[in-house]
Write a structure and sequence with these properties.
113 residues; mainly alpha; 7 helices; globular
Length: 113
Amino acid sequence: RFVDGHIAQRIANAFRDRGMSKAELARRAGCSTVYVHQVFSGRRSPSRDKLICLFVGMGAGPDEIQQALKESGFAQLYPANRRDSVILYGLAHGQSLAEIDEKLYAAGMQTLT
């Protein structure tokens, strides 16, 4: 799904700039440490939801997440889509992944994790 590994490099660059461990990223993104290592090594390509989780885990804002989705060939978060609008609201208000998932669950929608 990645074009010339560009998004994998973007993930790595965004991660490096955050100054956190991969274990911390895994915890914040709701993923296993093994999964995070597989993404960074190129053995796994994240789904749209997992890509969002990784960037939320890094503390990325809506614009950075939208750009990452676009560059990876996934649909950007679309405000007219109910689920996407809940995610965008959470991102705009600095909510954690757990808080966003809680709002999605309460609305009867599929959570990110």
